[in-house]
Amino acid sequence: MQNGEAEKKSPINLLRGWPNPALLPVAQIKAASAAALSQPDVSTAGLLYGPDPGYEPLRESIAEWLSRFYQLHSSTSPNRICITGGASQNLACLLQVFSDPVYTKFVWQVSPTYFRVCPIFEDNAFHGRLRSVPEDDEGIDVEFLKKRLQEVEDESPVNGEKPENLKGFQPWRKLYRHIIYAVPTFSNPSSRTMTLRRRKELVQVARQYDALVITDDVYDQLQWPAQKPSTSSSLRHAVLPRLVDIDRELEGGTQRQGADGFGNTVSNGSFSKIAAPGTRCGWAEGTEKFAHGLSQNGGSASGGAPSQMTSTFMTELLRSGELENHIFTTLQPNYARRYYRMMEAIERYLLPLGVTLPQSDRTVVGGYFFWFALPKPLLADEVARAAKEEENLIIGQGSLFAVYGDERTEDLERQVRVCFSWEEEANIVQGIERLGKVVKQMLNGRTSSSNGDSSTAMAAAKDNS
Asked: Given a cut of 50, is residue 53 above it in pLDDT?
């Protein structure tokens, strides 16, 4: 098929990781903003500079909500919460406060990784020091990580001396020796969920090697049964604890003897996936000492807390119960339906061709994505190019999700990510059908796209998440 013929087909974008506009809570946000702005004490607080940790009523509401959702043994204190401008903005803030380009040795990322975090790490002077860690069906390969961390320590031990650094010392700042980045639940891009055993092991390794584990916990509430139920139901509690919850309690927790009180984990939360990305509002949770340190980030403190006015709207959404209602009655059932339709299409059009899926035995699934391996000898770069040229279909080939400078090409060259959150439901099925057509043609050696590079897909990725 020539490019002109492909253009006759309506475009389908299974790369874009955005919420479908029909699922945005426009009416709820409109009502929440009106309620906040109609109360002089709330509107005045929202329109002025806020306290360093963020709008206190929102911190209280988030703490109460998270305690309920994660069924915590002891309620979360608002002092463990710091309001942010969203997960990506906060990742930059975390690096500014808790890492140092001289003292911090490496950033370790689960591979495949969310491709937009690599530039954030590089902007914070870690160019050339990003390292990939493979994952299996339990999540991050902790033994691989531990071996590599020990190799680094053997080459350049600290030996107890005062670390050389560029940022200087403050009582609210801790500089970590290593940074570890992961998306433990319904990961972007691999869709995997890290097991409880691996979560505990990762916390233990972080403690042993003075590492800060930064987890993007942005998909946790978007969950549903792996098998299509006979009746619609919502899952109102998390299936697994976050790493920050494990760090809080495991073997004496963050206040155990010899610990410094900062902890080794931070949970990066966001309203982007459960409300709307345009709110640019989120939160971080760590120990009280850690949250205070984060609040002292120069850029945030100077501006008087991130997302101050939006915080008043989000407070209204949480206090009224409208946000939870939106999650449980709109997002979960709609995304579940999209997931089931894409799964049925994959089973019909791709699995018979030799495509394989990870973690096929899970009872609970969620997030935005499917991740699968193409049959040999197909390469994802070539399939993505053929899909665009011949079917006007955009997918995410594995190479997009490589860790900058430490690409594990042998692990990613046959992998594909597709998203079910953005396109209309009919297009989700049609997109997988088109992809199946391309895969079948390429397996049979009948495709016009066999040369070139992946620049087209890379350009497309700039407009997608």
From this structure: yes
**Interhelix angle for 308-320 vs 56-69, to 10°?**
40
Q: What percent of the chain has pLDDT over 90?
A: 85
SS3 180: strand
Q: What are phi and psi of 205, to 5 degrees?
A: -65, -40
Are 82 and 97 in contact by the 8 Å Cβ rule? The answer is no
**Could you write out the three-class secondary structure of 123-172?**
HHHHCCCEEEEEEECCEECHHHHHHHHHHHHHHCCCCCCCCCCCCCCCCC
Between CA 109 and CA 180 the distance in angstroms is: 6
What is the pTM for the complete model shown? Answer: 0.94
pLDDT of residue 399: 95
Statement: residue 302 has pLDDT above 90: no
Query: Which residue is associated with the tokens 């029909």?
Result: 22
Joined together, the tokens standing for residue 426 give 């009919």
Phi and psi dihedrals of 447, rounded to 5? Answer: -140, 145
Picking from 244, 201, 193, the residue whose alpha carbon sits closest to that of residue 220 is 193
Output the pLDDT for position 452: 46
Positive/negative CA dihedral, 461, 393, 412, 446: negative
- Which residue, among 49, 68, 52, 44, has the nearest Cα to 323 in the 3D structure? 68
Position 388, amino acid: K
d(CA 450, CA 397): 15
Contacts of 46 (CB under 8 A, 6+ apart): 36, 37, 55, 308, 309, 311, 312
Mean pLDDT of the chain: 93
Contact 413, 399 (CB under 8 A): yes
